[in-house]
């Protein structure tokens, strides 16, 4: 873990926005007009997916992937001007939120500024042509950070330029960029933006092993935590998907979450998500609304920052295209906004940052989780499949207040029951 990482990032809610698909016009202004609604969800940090101009050579789809960037130092004119972007960031700050932007430093579009001006900075195939190291990423070419110190200088100067405007960076496929680069970048950017937020898109263990087997260096979460404040939750993502498909896999999933407490630095921060722009929608994976409410509550309850991908608050089922205009419907569908706003309030409690944390799976198809500090305990019951649940709680018998609903939650013979919805109990509130 970076030595100066604030552990209070565990109390944060991050909201992910793809500008092109967030409003009918797909502009910075379209996002700015939605800021009051986003803030009402209890959001702390807005993460804007790449805001830069996109390449045209080997473009995927009609409009191209936002991760095939042509110019790191400009904004996509389809979204607006630099002044429009500054106005959006000012609006975010005015509502007490922070803004981070995507940094895509493993690769550029084949027709990027850097590809034209510094072709020597790129990985090349046996014929000498620039190439991606992952074959499916056919619309990009990979940068070679061993080629020149001038590349490092250019990239870090670019980060410092944007750090004069925004509060941090979400770094795309961060494991495929050298750790020493990220360490230097963090140190230099801190002179421009003290407290800059660094979020790494860490990757699945199998992807790490695949890359290493093919001669491509790839950093583990443990290595990334030396430079970054937060890492993705991909080390448990496959166990999560397995648990959604098979109740017998709920216990292995809980075990995977608990393992994180022992393999990462004591003050690690994970980005907890049910979905993101690369993964199926939670509304698709969890079609039962009651179960979706429960998983949503569990996601906020977990140790780490909670991610909301725009549209998740409406239980959206359709995963928007990265390559076409595919506007998210933020007006229809079940409204999880009140639940999310309440969960964000609960997540502000100090115990989520500092407490001892553990998760348990139960044969009835429920997860329970708890935080404890001297003289303080929080307990959560989360029926994973929207069905009734009866579990041991470890709490003294009595009547408590469910922090989610405000209704009475009773503990009898040490047990807590639920008709299928999540319950969070503060042992001090009897």
DSSP summary: helix tally: 15
Task: Report the β-strand fraction as a percent range.
Answer: 15-25%
Q: Helix proportion of residues, in percent?
A: 25-40%
Strand order of the largest sheet: 1-2-3-6-7-8-9-10
Radius of gyration: 22 Å
Which residues form runs of ≥5 with pLDDT under 50?
none
Mean pLDDT: 97
- The outline comes out as globular
Largest sheet: 8 strands, parallel, barrel
Q: What structural class do the secondary elements suggest?
A: alpha/beta
Number of strands: 18
Give the end-to-end Cα distance, rounded to a whole number of Å.
37 Å
List keywords for this structure.
430 residues, alpha/beta, eight-stranded parallel beta barrel, four-stranded antiparallel sheet, 15 helices, 18 strands, 31% helix, globular
Structure description:
Strands 1-2-3-6-7-8-9-10 form an 8-stranded parallel barrel. A 4-stranded antiparallel sheet has the order 11-12-13-18. The chain has helices spanning 19-22, 28-32, 35-40, 82-94, 113-117, 149-163, 179-192, 205-213, 221-224, 234-245, 250-263, 282-285, 289-301, 337-347, 351-354, and strands spanning 13-17, 45-48, 98-103, 107-108, 141-142, 168-171, 197-200, 230-232, 270-272, 305-309, 356-362, 366-373, 376-383, 389-392, 398-401, 408-411, 415-418, 423-426. The chain is α/β, with parallel strands linked by helices and 430 residues long. A hairpin with a 3-residue loop joins strand 11 (356-362) and strand 12.
């Amino acid at each position: 873990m970076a030595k100066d990482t604030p552990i209070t990032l565990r109390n944060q809610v991050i909201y992910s926005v793809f500008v092109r698909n967030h409003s009918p016009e797909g502009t910075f202004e379209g996002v700015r007009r939605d800021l009051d609604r986003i803030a009402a969800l209890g959001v702390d940090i807005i993460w804007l997916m790449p805001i830069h101009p996109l390449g045209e050579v080997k473009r995927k789809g009609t409009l191209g992937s936002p991760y095939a960037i042509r110019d790191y130092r400009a904004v996509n004119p389809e979204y607006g001007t630099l002044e429009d972007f500054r106005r959006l960031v000012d609006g975010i700050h005015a509502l007490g939120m922070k803004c981070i932007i995507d940094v895509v430093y493993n690769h550029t579009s084949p027709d990027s500024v850097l590809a034209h001006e510094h072709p020597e900075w790129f990985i090349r195939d046996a014929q000498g042509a620039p190439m991606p190291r992952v074959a499916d990423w056919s619309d990009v070419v990979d940068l070679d950070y061993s080629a020149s110190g001038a590349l490092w200088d250019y990239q870090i100067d670019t980060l410092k330029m944007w750090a004069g405007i925004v509060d941090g960076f979400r770094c795309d496929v961060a494991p495929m960029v050298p750790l020493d680069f990220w360490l230097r970048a963090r140190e230099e950017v801190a002179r421009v933006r003290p407290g800059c937020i660094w979020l790494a898109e860490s990757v699945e263990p199998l992807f790490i092993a695949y890359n290493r087997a093919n001669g491509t260096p790839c950093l583990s979460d443990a290595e990334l935590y030396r430079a970054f404040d937060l890492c993705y939750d991909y080390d448990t993502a496959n166990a999560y998907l397995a648990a959604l498909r098979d109740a017998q896999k709920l216990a292995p999933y809980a075990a995977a979450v608990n393992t994180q407490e022992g393999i990462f630095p004591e003050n690690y921060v994970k980005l907890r998500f049910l979905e993101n722009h690369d993964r199926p929608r939670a509304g698709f994976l969890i079609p039962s609304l009651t179960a979706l409410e429960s998983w949503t509550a569990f996601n906020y309850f977990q140790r780490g920052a909670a991610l909301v991908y725009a549209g998740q608050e409406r239980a959206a089922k359709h995963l928007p295209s990265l390559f076409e205009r595919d506007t998210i419907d933020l007006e229809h569908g079940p409204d999880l906004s009140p639940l999310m706003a309440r969960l964000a309030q609960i997540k502000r409690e100090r115990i989520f940052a500092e407490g001892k944390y553990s998760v348990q799976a139960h044969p009835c198809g429920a997860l329970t989780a708890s935080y404890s500090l001297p003289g303080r305990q929080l307990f959560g019951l989360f029926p994973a499949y929207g069905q009734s649940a009866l579990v041991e709680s470890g709490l003294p018998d009595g009547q408590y207040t469910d922090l989610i609903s405000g209704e009475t939650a009773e503990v009898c013979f040490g047990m807590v029951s639920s008709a299928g919805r999540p319950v969070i109990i503060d042992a001090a509130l009897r």
